[in-house]
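Dissemination and training. As part of the outreach component of the grant, students in the summer workshop were shown how a complex can be specified as a set of sequence lines and then modelled as a single object. The example used during the hands-on session is reproduced here so that future cohorts can follow it. Participants entered these lines:
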Amino acid sequence: MKRTLVARSIGALGLVAMLACQGAPPAEQAATGSPPANLTMFAALPDAPPPLAGNPMTPAKVELGKMLYFDPRLSRSWLISCNTCHNLALGGVDLEQTSIGHGWQRGPRNAPTVLNAVFNIAQFWDGRAKDLAEQAKGPLQASVEMSSSPDRVVETLKSIPEYVERFTAVFPDEADPVTFDNMAHAIEAFEATLLTPSRFDSYLRGDAQALAADEKAGLDLFVSKGCAGCHNGVNVGGSNYYPFGVVQKPGSDILPPGDKGRAAVTHSASDDYVFRAPTLRNVGITPPYFHSGVVWDLSDAVEVMGNAQLGMALTPDERTSIVTFLASLTGTQPKVEYPVLPTHTAATPRPVWQVDTAPSGQH
Amino acid sequence: MKRTLVARSIGALGLVAMLACQGAPPAEQAATGSPPANLTMFAALPDAPPPLAGNPMTPAKVELGKMLYFDPRLSRSWLISCNTCHNLALGGVDLEQTSIGHGWQRGPRNAPTVLNAVFNIAQFWDGRAKDLAEQAKGPLQASVEMSSSPDRVVETLKSIPEYVERFTAVFPDEADPVTFDNMAHAIEAFEATLLTPSRFDSYLRGDAQALAADEKAGLDLFVSKGCAGCHNGVNVGGSNYYPFGVVQKPGSDILPPGDKGRAAVTHSASDDYVFRAPTLRNVGITPPYFHSGVVWDLSDAVEVMGNAQLGMALTPDERTSIVTFLASLTGTQPKVEYPVLPTHTAATPRPVWQVDTAPSGQH
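and obtained this result:
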């Protein structure tokens, strides 16, 4: 039953992605050993981000992207930056049920972690942004998040001489380098560096001691119970879309009826309540859980998943064991030097505190 | 007229502080030269923070203080940290007219910079906190800022094992090291490290080439016009209290009649509209200006000061010259590695989004 439904929800693109994840082990694995034979549905985190489509990474671009990521002046209020909701001090999330944005408005969905997000098949819970560059443009404009606009952002960046210099250096072949697209490309380049290698990766690469016995037992359960049917690939999730409630829909507190997920993107009724499976990397430090963000305890979340996706009531011991394994997915967090941002000028659009538009936008 | 009024507003403590600033030059000056003879009302920024009263600094305490400074979970919403309003990417301020806090409420005063604040005579615009440790407790509890409470903060910290370990290591002689006071002491220790040496300091230490000719001309004007009557000492301000409007009260937009400043602290009518002179270090990057935060242009602020404090209409050229000098007070900003914060537990009080108390508190 489960397998059939899961297979149905995997589109052509998803299959390609999964095959890529399950193909020949990357060079890093070969170098240090082989993954356990039953774990080929996973892939160790590479040491470096993958090439970004149409966006070659350079150190200067990454540095510019870091500045933009932390710059609250990209928001209408000058108070909210990318880092506000995707806080690199807190596992790349805000630890809020759903994010708080401009005017203290709440967005409709829980903020997914930015860490390792470059390896997701697409961005947002409904996958409506094909990559991190496209994603970055969303919250900037969403009236319940940063509440700015492309024009305002570009006017802001062009008013700050150091930003103009940096964009010019980073995009040297462009006559007009300070654009909303280039801002997004720089942010994408920085975000792509935010990788968190974990002990699970060492284990996948053949270091049998990298996981403790109880973690290995939890991993065995994770695979044998079927969790890895959706949570697989390099991000232990993030690689495809699945109905929330493959077997049994959770309650309306966890699955609010008004948010139909991917159906709003594909306009297909068969995608009602379909969401991208989240990565489970760093899941132990990034509550609360689900797109609705209403479940704070990871064991509770595992219980919900067992019922909704697998049609089985996991025992308390099984849940504890799986949670023990999941903790091994908490990786080494990125080291980031906090940027010193360039000074604005009289031409920079001033902060606007007021809320003057109708809510829109979501993670 | 000006001198008389200024002298009147200097209390005994202030005199001691000023004398300390104008006393024998520190060792750093002697090592590299002597300050120009007419500049003895200033003092170069020391290389290290001064000893903190009752709060010996250690690297572990500074590191703990940095974590607390950046931890939004000290706020009721989990969204606001010290760094939100005193952003180290932005000169230690939020660049807002007045700060935005819990529930998107606005505080009544502009956020002063945390940079070099350890050298201020006292903290807040009205000096009601004697030091940075006392200051740190204010915004944490103010309902329009972080909206927490000592009990909630201590409960939060005690629920996070790594914080308990760190407090225990930093305050080893205490039976109950995780306290609101110790939190404040750790934050004070970190903040005391946030010093921004500038070219003006090199000049004071005898490097005649550290300032350009137009900056020296501006400095001469700054002294000869009387600006240095209040803006002196190591922080070029911050060392004492003065009426805003020594000669002529500015308009009610700049000096709102409802905020009587230090009078609320001393309960003396003679302190009506008396405020601590702000430091001018980094003034070029920390608009908007005055406790009311309504003036964005530094030249405009200098004009207001000329009229209100000196009773003179500075010419546009004079204002430009003074602003040119003030830019030399923008110092090298602190390098800070963004902290990775320890994970909360099930015992940690969850974020509260709602606004449920009457506004209180101000910078």
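The CA atoms of residues 168 and 177 of chain B lie 6 Å apart. Students were then asked to discuss how this feature might be tested experimentally.
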